[in-house]
Amino acid sequence: MATASKKKLSEIDRITEPIPVASASTSSRRDERAVELCECMMDIVAALFNVSSKEMRRPGRTSQEVARVRQIAMYVTHVVLQMSMREVGRGFGRDRTTVVHACHLIEDMREDADFEQVVMMTERVALAAFRDRMGL
């Protein structure tokens, strides 16, 4: 029994071992930057489409209108800012698979000429807003 307890303690020590400082701070800074960029994108897109940025940030389901605007924002963030879907998901407070779904949906909807214009306008605004910050 004492051996089993020691083994469990050594496993816990291994699991809770601190991450090396360099990799933790680099990853943390990258995550903070992703969240900051997504927050900015949500504010921009909420203003463009006249929806509440608070509603866009709300966890769980929202109205179809707010969900569509969020999907456009996720798509534009992924495409224009060249962020991974994992980073976009983290920044929007959603799962990566939600971002994958949003990107596929928006790509399919772009076949409609009017919707294409809406997405292109959103991309242009994002490019202008982030040009200096991202070197775009």
UniProtKB/TrEMBL annotation:
Q: Name one Pfam family in it.
A: Bac_DnaA_C
Which domain of life, per UniProt? Bacteria
Question: Which GO MF terms are attached to this record?
Answer: ATP binding; sequence-specific DNA binding
What are its GO biological-process terms? Answer: DNA replication initiation; regulation of DNA replication
Q: Which residues cross the membrane?
A: none
The family database entries (InterPro entries) matched by this protein are listed as:
DnaA_C, Trp_repressor/repl_initiator
Q: Please name the Gene3D superfamilies in this protein's record.
A: 1.10.1750.10
Q: Where is the Chromosomal replication initiator DnaA C-terminal domain?
A: 37-106
Q: What is this protein called?
A: Chromosomal replication initiator DnaA
Q: Which organism is it from?
A: Borborobacter arsenicus
